[in-house]
Amino acid sequence: MNLESLAPPSDPAMPRRLSSVRWRLMLAVPLATAVAVALFAWSAGGFAPVAGGWERAGWMVLLLSAIQLLLIEAMLLRPLRRLAAGCEAMESAPLPLTPEDAAPTPGQAAELDRIGHAMRRVRGSLWQQDQDARELRRELSQQRLLLEQAHTALEANQRELASLARTDALTGLANQRAFDEALRREFKRAQRQRGLLALAVIDLDDFKRFNERYGADVGDAALQRIAALLDERFKRDTDVVARLGGEEFVALLPGFGMAEAQNVLELLRDDLRTLRLPDGEGSLTVSIGLAAASPAHPYLSAQALMQAADEALYIAKHAGRDRLSLAA
Ligand SMILES: Nc1nc2c(ncn2[C@@H]2O[C@H](COP(=O)(O)OP(=O)(O)OP(=O)(O)O)[C@@H](O)[C@H]2O)c(=O)[nH]1
Fold first, then answer.
1. I need a labelling partner for 66 at 20 to 30 A (CA). Which of 13, 171, 231, 254 fits?
2. Are 323 and 287 in contact (CB under 8 A)?
3. 325 forms bridges with which residues in the sheet?
4. Measuring from atom 8 of ligand 1, which residue has the nearest CA?
5. pLDDT 10s per residue in the chain (328 long)?
6. Domain 176-326, CATH homologous superfamily name and number
7. For residues 262 and 323, is the Cβ–Cβ distance under 8 A?
8. Distance, CA 265 to ligand 1 centroid (Å)?
9. If DSSP codes are grouped into helix, strand and coil, which group holds residue 288?
């Protein structure tokens, strides 16, 4: 600590000012005393214009002034002079801290040592805590990353599961559940918009015999080929092709009336005739039942439309297969 900073602000002109104050007091005090004595005499009965009265008053003024000046000198000016001298001394010779002064006593040194040790320990422990916190933060961000990855994987799995729940495993087409939803949705839309909606039920002919002749694996591959063909033939965004199970497929064709659907289904039958089945084995035909809803030919419900297509398929089968039958 700098001792100079503790010293009162010094004023080099202080002793000079004090002596000038003393001179002023030596003039002012007798004057003020004379006035006071005069006032006192006047208030006590007026001035006595006799020589003895003036003389006594003069002596009284002198005596009182001397007493006051002595008192002022002793009680005020002298202490002030000492103070000024002290300030001047501090000013001119500030006390520096000598190495001896600065050196702590053995007791203080031991105490300082202990404090130093304690502070080093605290600093060490703070550093360790900081390291631990960094490590924790690193671990936390790794865990968060893993969690995000797991979450993404879970979402992907859920999406896949949801898609599997609506997909036919063998062919990748929509399954019965997805088709039922699509049929309800498209039927309502067609009703609302007074639009067209065609529904074809497509069933392989004598597939049992095909399976028996070429084996289930060839049968599976044939189902996959036909599914791909349907997918290729009905590829508008609004078309829905599904496998309902076994060797039965459906095509839901929004915006198509009976005639347009019939045309495209005949093309499908042509495709089938030229389709090369796995291992070049045999050929397959299909029977198709077609129903179409329109404002001119409305159906009460989606189920009613489906039933009409099923009945048309039944007729096609009983009429000898490999044909397309239209619902009444
Ligand atoms: N390979 C294979 N065969 C299947 C699959 N699902 C059903 N089948 C077979 O398809 C055949 C269907 O036989 P049916 O219902 O008698 O029909 P179909 O022989 O086609 O006779 P129609 O429909 O009257 O022309 C059965 O032999 C089933 O085992 C499948 O996923 N893979």
1. 13
2. yes
3. 289
4. 246
5. 443 444 444 555 666 777 788 788 888 888 888 888 888 877 877 655 555 677 888 888 888 888 888 888 888 888 888 887 877 777 776 555 566 666 778 888 899 999 999 999 999 999 999 999 999 999 999 999 999 999 999 999 999 888 889 999 999 999 999 999 999 999 999 999 999 999 999 999 999 999 999 899 999 999 999 999 999 999 999 999 999 999 999 999 999 999 999 999 999 999 998 887 766 667 899 999 999 999 999 999 999 999 999 999 999 999 999 999 999 8
6. Reverse transcriptase/Diguanylate cyclase domain (3.30.70.270)
7. no
8. 21
9. strand
Quick one: tokens of 307? 């039933």
* Residue among 247, 283, 314, 325 to mutate when testing ligand 1 (max atoms within 8 A of CB): 247
Q: At 301, is the secondary structure helix, strand, or coil?
A: coil
Residue with tokens 């495709």: 271
> What pTM was computed for the model?
0.61
Atom 32 of ligand 1, residue of closest alpha carbon: 220
Q: How many residues does the chain have?
A: 328
Is ipTM beyond 0.95?
yes
